[in-house]
Amino acid sequence: MSAGDQELPGPTEWGEHPYGVGPWVQEFGTEPPQDPRLDPELLAEGDRRNVVDAYRYWTREAIIADIDERRHEFHVAIENFGHDANIGTVVRTANAFAAAAVHIVGRRRWNRRGAMVTDRYQHIEHHADIAGLLEFAERANLVVVAVDNVPGAVPLETVRLPRNCLLLFGQEGPGVTEQAKSAAVMTVSIAQFGSTRSINAGVAAGIAMHTWIAQHADPSRAW
């Protein structure tokens, strides 16, 4: 990724304060190393992207290739029939946990603001409908697990998620569609103890993904 392809300056979760690193010479006082993973423009102009320090100055392609070596087996799917604003959060969390891919079902367009540009490094696929998603899951030998607080759902806290699975989330409000739930091998719910009837879809996705991480991932490989 060249410096010219970086996200435009603007507010982030850190506010307006700039983050990242400046030009390599300014930061380290030496000439930049000869490493094919590094972007000459970023080395010369600095790297203000939302990436971990280990990826500073790396090209976008090098970052994706490195994550691909460490991606986990689970996939995430979210229905987007109502232009759900939570999709950006789901993508960002999937990137943090190195999900194999995020699948968006329904409308192709989605609100990218919540992703904080992490969609540049996360594999994202689109399916026009649930049938298309289920065909993909069958080809990829993925167990479909719907996440929704509905009668008959099994508490997430009591199950072991399949290693090769597709975690399926519905949009805010309606939840997972009936077609999706009927095709899922299991539907799991997230235990709640307060007054609200449901958890934000983006938050629910993060809880479910971290449950998979806690059960299957190697913590020594985390940053």
UniProtKB/TrEMBL annotation:
Protein name (record): TrmH family RNA methyltransferase
Lineage per the UniProt record: Bacteria, Bacillati, Actinomycetota, Actinomycetes, Mycobacteriales
tRNA/rRNA methyltransferase SpoU type domain mapped to chain residues: 74-210
PANTHER family: RRNA METHYLTRANSFERASE 3, RRNA METHYLTRANSFERASE 3, MITOCHONDRIAL
Keywords from the UniProt entry: Methyltransferase, Transferase
Gene3D superfamilies: 3.40.1280.10
InterPro entries: Alpha/beta_knot_MTases, rRNA_Methyltransferase, SpoU_MeTrfase, tRNA_m1G_MTases_N
GO molecular function term, any single one: methyltransferase activity
Domain of life: Bacteria
Gene Ontology annotations of biological process type: methylation
Region span, Disordered: 1-35
